[in-house]
Amino acid sequence: MRKEDLQYPWPFCYTKRSMKTLQERIQEDMKEAMKQKEEARLSTLRMLKAALKNKQIDLMHELSKDDVLKVIKSQVKQLADAAVLYADGGRQEAVTAAQAEIVLLESYLPAQMDDDMLEAKVRQALQEAGMQSKEQMGKAMGVAMKAVMGEADGSRVRSIVEKILAVFSVVMVGVGISQVASASASTPTFSADFVVTCLRIVRAFLLIFGVASINYLLVGGFKYMIASGRNDEVSFSLHKITIGLIGTVTVVCLYIVVTSMLQELTAS
């Protein structure tokens, strides 16, 4: 082949020709499916192509990589939901077909992080952004999703963000308790009644945290029971259960500490 026959000027031809976008890859796979007469694969890719076209019309601009990934994930979710309905209706052939379509579409998605790597990455991103409380949940999710860059499902990211923020909130309560105790011990003029009032307020907040933690535990357990073996639902419910357990144990320990401090102060 002569250099002048190449699509791009030498020496950039190989680099540019090898840099395929996700949509170009989908288009090439469609052509290959047509060539090989793979009807099932071709049908799935045509539906994906139509969904991408509709999304582009809605947005009124060319789709970015993130836009394409969102469409693919949406298609996967629709197929997963359909597979559940098929299974409930005893339509095993339809379930198998839907699962095959899911496998095909997921081949265009980035590899998913494992739970340990995902939690480490999210934790680092939240620490760098200074996210420390549940009130910052919305911003924290934005920071976390940007950090994982599509390498984890949104439900998994949300569960981990909730877990990290819940633990941090309880830790901050513990820090507040220790600061109050230190102040009362080191400052002779510090009012004992004031300390008692503060500790009672802290204990009330701990009760609220405890109820929330138990609620997480119960919701997680219920979702686990109805997950029907779906990996995303099982993962989501297990994260809920983990948050509930950590929160409940931490709250119980802090509640015992606060109660003992109150007993000492009121007794004296």
UniProtKB/TrEMBL annotation:
Protein name: GatB/Yqey domain protein
GO function terms (MF aspect): carbon-nitrogen ligase activity, with glutamine as amido-N-donor
One Pfam family per UniProt: YqeY
PANTHER family assigned to the protein according to its UniProt record, in alphabetical order: ALTERED INHERITANCE OF MITOCHONDRIA PROTEIN 41, MITOCHONDRIAL
Keywords, ordered alphabetically: Coiled coil, Membrane, Transmembrane, Transmembrane helix
TM ranges: 164-181, 201-222, 243-262
Protein species of origin: Candidatus Uhrbacteria bacterium GW2011_GWF2_46_218
Coiled-coil intervals, chain numbering: 19-55
